[in-house]
Request: fold
Amino acid sequence: MNMNIQTSITISTAHFVHTANPSSKCRRLHGHNWKIFVNVNGNIENDGMVMDYTCIKNVVNKLDHKTLISEELASKKDIDVHDIHVNGKHYVLPVEDCIILPTPSITSENIALYIRDELQKIAPSAKLHVKVYETEGSYAEI
Ligand SMILES: [Zn+2]
Reply:
């Protein structure tokens, strides 16, 4: 039987959008409380679930209270820090406070894609719908 499940999770992260227009405030390191909705459409499996909500929470909560860094910028100076030179700025951030995402920049669009792709690995046949609110009225949806 096919069914929809949905959950929402709020996480806090820091990020900066190094690809934004040079005059954009989004280039500066700043934070958001992202509200993330995940909708999964699929068959009810033998365990009685379309997808365990815990799987969704595990994927999303990996980002919580971290600084999100595009893999294009990530370079470890040593085992403890990321040493990032971008747009004339130099960031040195503790590795344990960061998560590197396989995205060209850290935007709500790319976060939505990342979450969708990670969940698709867990449930290859499910239809996934991810909505990432950066602010109360602004979101990316896939
Ligand atoms: Zn932002």
